[in-house]
Amino acid sequence: MKKIILACGAGVATSTVVAGKISELLDKNGYEGLYSIVQCEIAEAKSQCAGADLLIATTVAPEGIECPYVNGVPFLTGMGRASAERDILAALAG
What we know:
There is one protein chain. The chain is α/β, with parallel strands linked by helices. It has one domain (2-93): Response regulator (Rossmann fold), CATH 3.40.50.2300. Helices cover 39% and strands 22% of the residues. The chain is built from four helices and four strands. The longest helix has 16 residues, at 13-28. It is globular. The two termini are 13 Å apart. Residues 2-94 form the PTS EIIB type-2 domain. GO terms for molecular function: protein-N(PI)-phosphohistidine-sugar phosphotransferase activity. InterPro entries: PTS_EIIB-like_sf (IPR036095), PTS_EIIB_2 (IPR013011), PTS_EIIB_2/3 (IPR003501).
């Protein structure tokens, strides 16, 4: 089971929007039922990354995280989304 941490400023609004888009991406690429998404506020991201496969954040990632990081802003703006999707799939495949 892949554990994905999805962080935004307060852990509610933007992370919820992005979570839906990430779920669609993963389901389309063979990960359906093989991952969990944990939403949190960015202040909790560092502690949540322990044992996680990936951090996706819609704000600046904290220093010292111990899991791979992908910028989640492209899932809000559309700019750079294809690249972010490739980065997510590569992180989970590795």
